[in-house]
Amino acid sequence: MTQTYTASARTRAGTLSGIAALILLVVAIVLPSFASRSLIQDLFFILTMLTLAQFWNLLAGYTGLVSVGQQAFVGFGAYMLFGATILWGVNPVAALFMSGVFALLLAIPTAFFAFRLSGAYFAIGTWVVAEVVRLCVAQWQAVGGGTGTSMPRDARDAMWGVEWIEILFDVRSSAARDILAYWLALALAAATIGGIYWFLRTRRGLALAALRDNVEAAKSTGVDATRMKWIVFLVAAFGTGIAGGLIFMQNGRISPDSAFSVTEWTAFVIFIVVIGGIGTLEGPIIGVLVFFFLQELMADFGAVYLIVLGLLGIAIMLFAPTGLWGFFAKRTGIALFPTQRRLETKR
Amino acid sequence: MTTILSLKDVSKSFGALKVADHVSFDLPEGQALGIIGPNGAGKSTLFNLITGNLAPDAGRIEYLGRDVTRVAPMQRCLAGMGRSFQIPQPFTRLTVFENLLVAATHGQDRRESEVVDDVAHVLERTELIDVANRPAGGLTLLQRKRLELARAMATQPKLLLLDEIAGGLTDAECSALIETIRALHSGGVTIIWIEHVLHALTAVVERLLVLDFGRVIGLGDPDEIMDSREVKEIYLGIEV
């Protein structure tokens, strides 16, 4: 009699990390009831950078789309949030969704042009698109043109949930807004990681991993590389746009230079992904923590900080090209987000 | 007998180098065709043209009666073309099983749960079942070659293109490989096989095509082809 088989992606480490993630999520939700405001702000920073890093990792780590122009979607999403709030009186929390949608709409023509390029040309092409968008937005006088603008007071006060948070935690409205932004960032990061993880475990996710490893072979085994590139690019733009909107909603002030900063929204994000481990879900999580602590440690050193970041990035690429997580996973075989399908005999 | 694949005056150049020079031939369904020729004769290029990884400069390729000259590799795979690469191209970070799973699900547009048994069966036939859950990046050369064949088989092709999968094998391994390919062939799969290991090739194929400088210089019965003077001069002269 021939044996029959089953396939499963379940592992003990995966189950444990799933439980740990749930506990962590619950703790993170109730955290504002006892954490200081500065911790909440730090966590907001970590969560939004983590979201940006996960999307960049999806682009570069899985589809080989090394974009240096993700700030286009951060900035455009953020500006659309300000535009919708100032011009159309949309509630900032609702406008977050519009940040994502407008970033996605921007991504369609961007992809149309950028997908004609590959490798380094693609990278530069996306950067050029981001600069063009920045220059165009700087002409938009209703949101402050080249100097930027602030979120109007009535829009800030009208944010959904702020009043409720004020009463719940007995805090001032500015602290309540931070808590709201933190919760939204938490939801966004959790949805991003959960969503990407779910996707990787589908049939299309398997194709994405195949593309990451070998494009020509993937095409020859029936993988639709072009469609995968489009899906990933548009999804990444949508998520990056929401993150951008959220970052500047919390910030309360926006200018073209800060919203379209290649250093903040792309260079730092690349650093996070590269030192953490490209092409893995765990990598950006490790990377953002390392990045945050380095920034805290070296906040007073000015430009030296950037030099240290650069040197560290180079060192990791030379000695642990798969990043800190890759280095660790190779030696232990542990995966927090197991996607590997194992063939097992059915008994 | 119906023609599964038909090439008409297919040409391709890389700069001044002609790698396919007015290549024409018809392949009846169910036949096994061997392709031989010296290194650099354009054998692998011909495969890339057939599977769509390269676009020809001129000519026409028909597959199952349909013009596929400009059709993407992925669509040709879905239409039943499976291939192996001369230099193994595994998905290194995926396991052996997952390598086949990609091919079986995307190459045939089926769900993962439906193909598990088929994939496991291919792994058994290609003797890869014991390393099914190992990352493909850690395989030996022999296992990588087997994986190339296995992954192509997993798409359940009507037309299977094999690019030098017998090189470097011991006699016993080679006989096992011949048996596997024979079994596929007798199951109705049409095969085109590029191979330098001539005894392996002639043990399976019914027709032989000789390429040199991108040109077809011989096509016919394997024994007659091997005996022809032109082939001996050009091909064996270099090989011996």
Attribute tags:
heterodimer, A: 347 residues, mainly alpha, two-stranded antiparallel ribbon, B: alpha/beta, Rossmann fold, six-stranded mixed beta sheet, four-stranded antiparallel beta sheet
Number of domains of chain B: 2
CATH topology description of the largest domain in chain B: Rossmann fold
Query: Can you tell me the CATH class of chain A?
Result: Mainly Alpha
Distance between the termini of chain B: 37 Å
3D shape of chain A: globular
Largest interface: A-B, 30 and 41 residues
Number of helices of chain A: 16
Termini distance of chain A?
A: 13 Å
Identify the CATH architecture of the largest domain in chain B. Answer: 3-Layer(aba) Sandwich
CATH architecture designation of chain A: Orthogonal Bundle
Q: Which band does the percent of strand residues of chain A land in?
A: under 5%
What is the total tally of β strands of chain A? 4
- Based on the structure, what is the oligomeric state of the protein chains? heterodimer
Broad shape of chain B = globular
